[in-house]
């Protein structure tokens, strides 16, 4: 490296280093310049060059850069300069030596460093000056100049003050100290003006350097004692007399810190293994690095004390005590073991969900060849909507992940409304670097950060789906792909012109052949049609009417799925022909084909459900649960006895739309099941909703203001979600929309809404302001008598809600995580309220008697200890189906559960939380769960679990030794999920004897997750009776277990179990599919020596860092008389290192041969 950065004066005024605060350059022997300036003779050049390049730089450290001769000019925010071991450095602050400057050699050059506090110069043998000869320093904040072994430095530059008319040689910064190891350097300085020496000498009268000699070696004990004189005498004597005790305490804390660091490193390794693609949190890595430093420092203190003189005992005691306290404080701030230690890290990419690809083989091969050729860098895949461009590219994306040619494969969807910020965020998310962009709002800087991200990504393929027009790559921050950087960009678009304007190699996607269209139709509608001699001829006509377009073929197949009457097919074919004959243009024909499928949805409410999806942004992944809730709020789902039944009906509609190929099943990045609407289907939906101007949809269009001109009187639904609207102007006339029923404003930074805004929308029934910055709701909301749904979730600044007494039609009110301190006035009048969410930390209390008046409540979420009434008030709600509550302590939860069971109140769903941060735990997909997190209890605290609980999560409950300590667990019948983490005293999950009852709470368990249990010795502890020769050890205990994961368990196994019995023990786990064992340094056995496993469903045994595990138990089939050592489950895969596999010990040599085909390193 010869320079850190280079550019010309004609370059853009913005640079990626404008936000840089700290620059550390070390051991760069060929570095000559930090900034290399390529001068343009026509450019106007300032002598104060490049100050904006590092405009935020505060600290610069330069070490071992032996070719460097000059640093750089003015940096307004610089606070520290430290230069060391730069053999050729002549000057610290050098102005550019341009011809203009050479012609005016006597010009005064001001080096303005107003925030500079410290300048350290160490071992710079050629250094002659701090700045150029005509330079003066403007640095009023300068406190220290440290000089060591700079033998040629003969000049200190003059100073001038930042303000005023201070003259050189008559001023020095008020707090300045100049320090050097040798008096001779000070005496050898040459002064441009004697008055400067006098000025500095005056300032340095109390800080002149003192020579150090060997006599200091004998002075140190005296100085140490003097340093202790400030300590009270009793403490001084204690330090002296009990030095050994202090040292022992130091060693103890040091060992604790070392153990904690090792535990965190083990947990970190575990979390980095599964799932893949994670990296350590920065604070965790910093803590581990600091821990290592502290442990080293503690060892240094021990060494010093062991070699110390008797006179230094008291001072050494004080030193040891201070270091011990420092380590203890640091240990108390260790990362929490129950929290994740990792975040998403960079990876090549994640596979995308794809549908089956029919046809397009030639196109795929052509695209692939272009990707493999160095000379092609830009590829444009084009064709009409629905022709299969996205599906083809998803398959290619997944194929690229299997190759090692590219470092990254990035997918981003652009859509019709091009949004630079969204595209940047999507690319950054794919690189797992979204946080690097999150705080930056400046467009130019965002582009610079994105440019740097992609440059560091190595060779990548960037796939941009659904591009509608040319865009500027530089504006986004995408480097130009080229053969030199090896990067590729692929676009999918409907227009060949877009490909040409972007400079792409264009590749068209053709329609399906008739045979391919038939295959695709039959794949969706079933093969039975082939056997029908009457349907096949009609089918050929149908696929041709569908224009052999994959999307229309699939949607039409979904419409006629299961229909085998030829007359119905003929009617559908005729209707399709008539529709297409009425329009002109391919796009219009496609929309008519799709409308045919929409019109064949016989239920009008199902049609409304489909059209509602168009209110979301294009290509949006809509969570199924959220969508069903929205349909319920809109009244699209008939009201029945229970809310659960309505939700089930909603999910049935989702399935129907998916089965009809009008919606597509997808999984979002968080693992939530979602649906997505194809953009061509959305175009069709918008063409329907635009009739009679019933819908106004402007979602995610980057709007900063509310549209004024399009509020027609006939509008029924308005979607302005996911925009950048911050305020609704007082000048705007309130919309006069008498038929408006739905207004969606969520995900906008709206702070204020005019008071009269809702005055002329009397029939508004759904208002969503969730995730906005609204501080106070307008009073006109109080007059919305037809309002049924008011959503204010996560409005973190909302302090005021007007009186709600007139909103007696309100059925749903969500106030979770707002900033309100009291419940709104008039809530007791909301007699029709079905859903209420009052969770959050700001609400001070819930008045007694309020809940009992809300007799229609079906779904309730609140914080129990803020309830002023008794817990029984909740249970008086006869229609309550779902309850989520946070309890302050265990007795409160027990009291609630006891009352719930005595009153025989069977909730359909519940989630009970106790302790600190229990909301961080997921319910793992179960409807009924209890979560205990970081609960500080006494040993006698017991928990009463509901008998029908399905999921239990326990974290940091340190008195718990096993689940046998929870007696109420014996009454639980349907437990499917169990998580136990960071319980220090737990030594087994459960224990019982072979004579125990044949029923256990774990019989229905499907998932068991154990983590950070340092004393755990056994999952199941079995006490056997001597008279038994064969034990079906817990045969029914984990009968339904599908997933077992164990992490970071450090205690050794007991050998007692092997004494005195040769009985064969069968461990029957017939549904176990995965067994993952990680970071178990003391684990010796999967089961006891005489144990055999019955687990025909086992697919994976994964072993990592279990060095003492030397044995895999034999297997026997669930049925039949299979012999041990001669059988393995057919789908089994064993994954670990080759070294571990080779070190395994085999009870029978044949068993290794049986398992060898199943091993994979």
UniProtKB/TrEMBL annotation:
PANTHER family in the cross-refs: AND NB-ARC DOMAINS-CONTAINING DISEASE RESISTANCE PROTEIN, PUTATIVE-RELATED, NB-ARC DOMAIN-CONTAINING PROTEIN-RELATED
Disease resistance protein At4g27190-like leucine-rich repeats domain location: 52-158
Residues covered by the NB-ARC domain: 365-526
Domain Disease resistance protein winged helix per the UniProt entry, residue ranges: 615-685
A Pfam family matched in the record: LRR_RPS2
Family under the similarity heading: Belongs to the disease resistance NB-LRR family.
Transmembrane segments annotated in the record for this chain: none
Protein name: NB-ARC domain-containing protein
SMART domains noted in UniProt: LRR_TYP (SM00369)
Signal peptide: none
Coiled coil: 420-457
UniProt keyword terms in alphabetical order: Coiled coil, Leucine-rich repeat, Plant defense, Repeat
Keyword Membrane assigned: no
């Amino acid at each position: 490296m010869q320079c850190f950065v280079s550019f010309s004066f004609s370059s853009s005024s913005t640079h990626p280093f404008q936000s840089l605060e700290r620059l550390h350059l070390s051991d760069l022997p060929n570095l000559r310049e930090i900034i290399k300036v390529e001068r343009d003779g026509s450019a106007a050049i300032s002598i104060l060059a490049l100050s904006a390049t590092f405009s935020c730089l505060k600290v610069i450290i330069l070490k071992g850069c032996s070719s460097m001769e000059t640093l750089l000019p003015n940096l307004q925010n610089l606070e520290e300069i430290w230069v060391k071991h730069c053999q050729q450095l002549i000057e610290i602050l050098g102005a550019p030596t341009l011809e203009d400057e050479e012609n005016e050699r006597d010009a005064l050059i001001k080096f303005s460093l107003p925030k500079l506090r410290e300048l350290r110069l160490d071992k710079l043998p050629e250094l002659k000056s701090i700045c150029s000869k005509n330079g003066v320093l403007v640095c009023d904040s300068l406190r220290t100049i440290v000089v060591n072994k700079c033998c040629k430095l003969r000049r200190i530059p003059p100073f001038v003050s930042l303000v005023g008319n201070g003259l050189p040689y008559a001023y020095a910064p008020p707090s300045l100290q100049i320090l050097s190891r040798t008096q001779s350097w000070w005496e050898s300085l040459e002064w441009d003006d004697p008055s400067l020496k006098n000025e500095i000498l005056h300032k340095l009268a109390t800080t002149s350097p003192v020579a150090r000699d060997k006599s200091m070696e004998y002075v140190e004990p005296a100085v140490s004692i003097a340093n202790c004189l400030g300590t009270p005498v009793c403490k001084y004597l204690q330090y002296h007399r009990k030095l050994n005790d202090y040292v022992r305490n130091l060693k103890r804390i040091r060992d604790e810190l070392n153990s904690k660091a090792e535990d965190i490193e083990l947990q970190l390794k575990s979390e980095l293994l599964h799932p893949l693609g994670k990296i350590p949190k920065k604070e965790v890595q910093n803590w581990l690095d600091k821990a290592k430093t502290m442990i080293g420092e503690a060892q240094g203190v021990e060494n010093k004390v062991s070699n110390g003189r008797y006179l230094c005992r008291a001072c050494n005691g004080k030193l040891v005590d201070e270091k011990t306290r420092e380590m203890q404080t640091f240990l108390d701030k260790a990362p929490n073991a129950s929290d994740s230690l990792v975040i998403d890290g960079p990876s090549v990419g994640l596979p995308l969900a794809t549908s089956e690809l029919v046809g397009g083989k030639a196109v795929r091969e052509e695209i692939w060849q272009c990707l493999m050729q160095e000379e092609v860098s830009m590829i444009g895949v084009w064709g009409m909507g629905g022709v299969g461009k996205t599906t083809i590219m998803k398959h290619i994306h997944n194929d690229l992940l299997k190759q090692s040619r590219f470092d990254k494969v990035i997918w981003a969807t652009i859509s019709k409304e091009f949004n630079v910020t969204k595209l940047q965020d999507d690319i950054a998310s794919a690189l797992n670097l979204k946080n690097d962009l999150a705080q930056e709002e400046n467009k130019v800087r965002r582009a610079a950060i994105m440019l740097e991200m992609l440059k560091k990504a190595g060779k990548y393929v960037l796939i941009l789906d659904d591009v509608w027009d040319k865009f500027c790559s530089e504006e986004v921050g995408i480097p130009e792909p080229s053969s030199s950087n090896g990067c590729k960009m692929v676009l999918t678009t409907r227009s060949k012109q877009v490909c040409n304007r972007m400079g792409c190699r264009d590749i068209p996607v053709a329609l399906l052949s008739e045979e391919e269209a038939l295959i695709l139709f039959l794949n969706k509608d079933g093969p039975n049609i082939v056997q029908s001699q009457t349907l096949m001829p009609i089918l050929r006509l149908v696929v041709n009417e569908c224009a052999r377009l994959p999307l229309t073929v699939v949607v039409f197949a979904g419409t006629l799925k299961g229909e085998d009457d030829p007359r119905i097919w003929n009617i559908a074919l005729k209707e399709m022909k008539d529709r297409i004959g009425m329009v002109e243009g391919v796009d219009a024909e496609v929309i008519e084909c799709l409308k045919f499928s929409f019109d064949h949805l016989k239920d009008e409410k199902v049609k409304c459900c489909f059209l509602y999806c168009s209110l979301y942004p294009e290509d949006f992944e809509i969570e199924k649960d959220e969508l069903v809730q929205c349909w319920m709020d809109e009244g699209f789902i008939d009201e029945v006895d229970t809310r659960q039944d309505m939700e089930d009906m909603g999910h049935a509609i989702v399935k129907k739309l998916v089965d009809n190929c009008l919606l597509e099943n997808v999984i979002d990045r968080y693992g939530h099941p979602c649906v997505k609407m194809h953009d061509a289907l959305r175009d069709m939906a918008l063409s329907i909703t635009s009739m009679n101007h019933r819908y106004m949809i402007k979602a995610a269009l980057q709007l900063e203001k509310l549209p004024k001109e399009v509020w027609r009187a006939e509008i029924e639904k308005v979607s302005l979600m996911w925009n950048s609207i911050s305020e609704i102007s007082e000048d705007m006339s309130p919309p006069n929309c008498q038929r408006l029923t739905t207004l969606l404003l969520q995900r906008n930074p709206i702070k204020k809404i005019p008071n009269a805004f809702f005055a002329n929308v009397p029939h508004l029934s759904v208002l969503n302001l969730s995730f906005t910055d609204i501080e106070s709701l307008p009073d006109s909301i109080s007059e919305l008598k037809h309002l049924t749904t008011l959503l204010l979730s996560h409005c973190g600044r909302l302090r005021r809600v007007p009186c709600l007494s007139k909103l007696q039609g309100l059925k749903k009110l969500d106030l979770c995580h707002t900033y309100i301190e009291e419940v709104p006035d008039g809530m007791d009048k909301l007699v029709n309220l079905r859903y209420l969410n009052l969770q959050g930390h700001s609400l001070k209390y819930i008045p007694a008697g309020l809940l009992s008046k809300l007799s229609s409540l079906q779904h309730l979420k609140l914080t129990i200890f803020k309830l002023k009434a008794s817990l029984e008030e909740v249970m008086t709600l006869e229609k309550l189906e779902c309850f989520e509550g946070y309890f302050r302590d265990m007795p409160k939860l027990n009291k609630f559960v006891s009352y719930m069971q005595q009153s025989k109140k069977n909730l359909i769903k519940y989630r009970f939380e106790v302790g600190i941060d229990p909301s961080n735990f997921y319910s793992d997909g179960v409807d009924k769960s209890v979560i205990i997190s970081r609960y500080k209890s006494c040993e006698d605290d017991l928990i009463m679990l509901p008998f029908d609980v399905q999921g239990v999560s326990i974290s940091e409950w340190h008195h718990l030794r096993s689940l046998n300590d929870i007696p109420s667990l014996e009454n639980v019948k349907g437990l499917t999920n169990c998580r136990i983490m960071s319980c220090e005293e737990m030594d087994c999950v459960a224990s019982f004897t072979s004579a125990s009852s044949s029923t256990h709470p774990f019989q229905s368990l499907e998932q068991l997750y154990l983590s950070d249990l340092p004393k755990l010795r056994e999952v199941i502890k079995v006490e056997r009776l001597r008279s038994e020769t064969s034990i079906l050890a817990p045969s029914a205990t984990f009968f339904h277990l599908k997933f077992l994961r164990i992490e970071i368990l450090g205690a050794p196994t007991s050998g007692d179990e092997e004494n005195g019995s040769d009985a064969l023990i069968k461990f029957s786990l017939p549904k176990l599919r995965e067994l993952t064992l990680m970071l178990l340094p003391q684990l010796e056995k999967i089961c006891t020596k005489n144990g055999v496993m019955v687990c025909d469903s086992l697919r994976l045994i994964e072993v990592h860092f279990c060095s003492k595990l030397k044995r895999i138990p034999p297997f026997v089939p669930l049925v039949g008389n299979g012999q041990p050592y001669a059988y393995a489950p057919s789908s089994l895969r064993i994954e670990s290192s080759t070294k571990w596999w080779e070190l395994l010990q085999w009870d029978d040599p044949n068993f290794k041969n049986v398992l060898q085909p199943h091993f994979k390193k």
